[in-house]
TrEMBL record:
Binding site for substrate: R67, E120
Keyword Metal-binding: yes
Residues bound to Mg(2+): E120, D146
Cofactor annotation: Mg(2+)
Top-level taxon in the UniProt lineage: Bacteria
Single GO MF annotation: magnesium ion binding
GO biological process: oxaloacetate metabolic process
Residues of the HpcH/HpaI aldolase/citrate lyase domain: 5-213
Keyword Lyase carried by entry: yes
Protein name listed in UniProt: Citrate lyase beta chain
């Protein structure tokens, strides 16, 4: 199933973990980093470890991602050690800036892991190609607001066009899934969330970070193909099946390989 929505839940609020899994979010990101104050990080890790051991249903293990504390912080090594002993294999690494650090995290996990590299700084953007090619990395994500602070960028619209394009280019070049776009701070403005999702999709993103369950539906809808797109893709593939080796036209337009590939992607990502 395509993974379009990544819903954050604070790592020190275990009573919310199952509630987050009960939403339509494709992935639930339990956050030990920004959502937890320094004085609460050890307790949060211990509570999460217990929940992963005793409270996480087997059916939901593939939906859980853990955002650990950043590489080099006082809590990072113990976060990774805790995950090494758990059944979770999906880890979000904040402030990703070096492929070597990601490789080190993967090696310390002692099992096959899938790392989501959250790039939130100028240094991370500069190193994006190497990060994307680290074998344990499965997806890039854009920490857009932290990036803006680091880069001195004032604005989250066209000011970020160049960087957004880099995410799409480097993800494609490394053979990764389409990248994950940053958060929308508004919780209740469904139109704004939908517009942000549509903008991310136009730039080549395939998913979006969510900070509240109210955002999930709009994000899922925004990244899914429309009914019209799906109907067009089905017509293309049906025509191709009728004439697999000859030239075909759909809706009066010649169809070549890139168009066929687009149609296949649309059908594969249609979830309604």
């Amino acid at each position: 199933m395509p993974l379009h929505s990544y819903l954050f839940v604070p790592g020190d609020r275990p009573e919310r973990f199952s509630k987050a899994l009960a939403t339509a979010a494709h992935q639930v990101v339990i956050d030990l980093e920004d959502a937890v104050a320094p004085e609460g990080k050890i307790q949060a890790r211990e509570g999460l470890s217990k929940w992963l051991r005793d409270g996480l249903p087997d059916i939901d293990k593939e939906r859980v991602v853990i955002r650990v504390n950043a590489y080099g912080t006082p809590w990072h090594e113990d976060d990774v050690k805790m995950l090494r002993e758990s059944a979770v294999t999906r880890i979000m690494v904040p402030k990703a800036e070096a492929a070597s650090e990601l490789a080190d995290i993967a090696s310390r996990c002692g099992k096959a892991v899938s790392l989501i590299a959250l790039i939130e700084s100028v240094a991370g953007v500069v190193e994006m190609r190497a990060i994307a090619h680290e074998k344990a990395v499965s997806r890039l994500a854009f920490g857009s607001f932290d990036y803006c602070v680091d880069a001195g960028v004032e604005g989250s619209g066209r000011e970020l066009d160049y960087v957004r394009s880099q995410f799409a280019i480097e993800s494609r070049y490394a053979g990764l899934a389409a990248p994950v776009d940053g958060v929308t701070l508004s919780i209740d403005d469904a139109d704004l969330i939908a517009a942000d999702a549509a903008s991310g999709r136009r730039f080549g993103f395939g998913a979006k970070l969510c900070i509240h369950p109210k955002q999930v539906e709009a994000v899922n809808r925004g990244f899914a193909p429309s009914d019209a797109d799906f109907a067009w893709a089905e017509r293309v593939l049906a025509k191709l099946a009728e004439n697999p080796r000859g030239a075909i036209a759909v809706d009066g337009k010649l169809v070549d390989k890139p168009i066929v590939d687009k149609a296949k992607r649309i059908v594969a990502s249609f979830t309604r």
